Amino acid sequence: MLSEDVLSNVLYVDLTEKRHWVVKRTELFEKYLGGSGAAIQLLTEECSKGCDPLGPDNPIVFAVGPLTGLYPLASKTVAMFKSPHTGNLGESHCGGRSAVAIRMAGYGAVVIKGASQIPLILAIHGNQIYFRDASSIWGIQNSMTTGRIIRENEPGSGLRTIMRIGGAGEQLVSYACVTTETYRHFGRLGLGAVFGSKKLKGLVFSGKRSLPVINSKQYREVYDDIYQRAVSSPLMKKYHDLGTAGNVKPLNIQGGLPTRNLQVAKFEGAEGISGETFAEHLLGRRLACTHCPVGCIHIAALREPYIDEAYFYKTHMISYDYELIYALGSMVGISDAEGSLRLMEQVEIFGLDAMSTGVVLAWATEAQQKGLITEKETKGLKFEWGNHRTYVLAVQEIVKQPNDFYKALARGVDYAAQKYGGADFALAFGGNEMPGYHTGAASYLGNLIGARHSHLDNAGYSIDQKAVGQELMKPTELANALIDEEEWRQILSSLVVCFFARGIYDPETVCRSLITSGFQITPEILQRMGRDILLAKQTFKRREGFEPKKLHLPKRIFETPSPGKPFNEDYLRQGIAAAEKHWV
């Protein structure tokens, strides 16, 4: 049985009526743990079929898990909603202080419904809920400025999490993100636009309470075991030293680094944007999410001289990782770290998903070079590979949306290619722009069949890298392997454990940790739970019109050599059909 604590509390907030209430949902957390498992059930209950993702009927669900606040690396919050970017399931994960703050506020999940008539900051301080008028800060484009204003005016310093949107969310860019603290994000699939549609400028959680455990001696033993494995793991050392930016050079050597809109997969300028270059010349500090001993968040310190003051500098602190370096570096041909950071900062300011932004800019560059668009559409901008200054200006135009072309870019590459052509090199899967892995068939099949069309769904790139030099798996075998991995990841994302710790939180460790949280669960039960949660996600997707047979496969992915064996469209179609059998 679930121990008697706050995890089973679900807070419902109606922005239209400015009211709130709490429902005890013990059965929900006993059956689905929390995180993704609880969130998909709540989304299915609250999201009306076929609703407008930018309408008041689209709820926002936040959920944490039974290990949150108790064990290392159980530090993520799951956000679930209907995505304005794909028109289907939206799921995004975020670290920082968000998960611990929500649980310390007294909740396992929060459901935000309706839409406000005026801009709001929703402040949740324990059982005190406030609807703050945010009219005075609506229109502030810089998400960092918004965060600073909220910090100066809300209580709970040191305990709270602050979520907010920038100009992209206000302007309903379909891939706008939500920023938490300063350097973490609900990045993918457009949660920022959903915030904007509800006039929700910011969201604050804080609280202070203790969490019960069953058998404190056993709890300490399990805790120490997880902690020691985390701090002694060579993989975790890599995440601490270089972060995911350490992937740049290995992927480039393998021929799996998407470059210039995937025209090639090796970048001659990779050294200039490698993790080693960032660490040696630009690293300013490392940070960690709450209750994480690893510290994988890397912040660059970029100095800039004042124009009229000799020997005086201002320092920009800019978060970077592999996905940002790929999307706002190699994908758009930028080979110098400072230029890439300038572009990252602009994306950060407005609150955009970096991956989607980079792929959009890359598509636009190639489309202009091929004559599909001209400087008339771009308002005089000439997109050139490696020209970060032009890309910075383009990001500003995407947010402002002054004409039909930039309005199209604000909806992603699939939509833009439908209007202007270039679908063969529009690199999105299930409507979500590609991540930075051109490693082979498993990576792309994983993006296509994953519940949120993300490389984090099933890590297909990992299968590719292990299979270099081997023959292709049969499509059915590959689909089954990807789904097996994704089913297990439903457990990790329901706990909610950082995927970097997936090698530490094996089934036995998960069961041991859950015992001290009040759950008597076996590995076999976990396996069934994972299967049920993934099926629930796919059922929601089918309800909202997702049809695997209609997935678009851009020709570019077959044309550019990857480290793995060559594959073709028929191979991926067979894999999609094999995966579909699991969901019917």
Q: What does this protein structure show overall?
A:
With 584 residues, the protein is an alpha+beta fold. The protein has three domains: 6-206, Aldehyde ferredoxin oxidoreductase, N-terminal domain (Aldehyde Ferredoxin Oxidoreductase,  A, domain 1); 241-421, Aldehyde Ferredoxin Oxidoreductase Protein, subunit A, domain 2 (Orthogonal Bundle), CATH 1.10.569.10; 432-580, Orthogonal Bundle (Aldehyde Ferredoxin Oxidoreductase Protein, subunit A, domain 3). It is 41% helix and 15% strand. The chain has 25 helices and 17 strands. The chain has a six-stranded mixed β-sheet. Helix 18 (441-449) packs antiparallel against helix 20, helix 18 (441-449) packs across helix 21 and helix 21 (475-495) packs across helix 23. The longest helix is centred in the last third of the chain and has 21 residues, at 475-495. The chain is globular, with a radius of gyration of 23 Å. It starts with 8 loop residues before the first strand and ends with a helix. The relative contact order is 0.13. The model has no long low-confidence stretch (mean pLDDT 96).
Summarize the entry for a quick read:
By secondary structure, the chain is of the alpha+beta class. It has a six-stranded mixed sheet.
Task: Name its key features.
single chain, 584 residues, alpha+beta, Aldehyde Ferredoxin Oxidoreductase,  A, domain 1, Aldehyde Ferredoxin Oxidoreductase Protein, subunit A, domain 2, Aldehyde Ferredoxin Oxidoreductase Protein, subunit A, domain 3, 3 domains, 6-stranded mixed beta sheet, 25 helices, 41% helix, 15% strand, globular
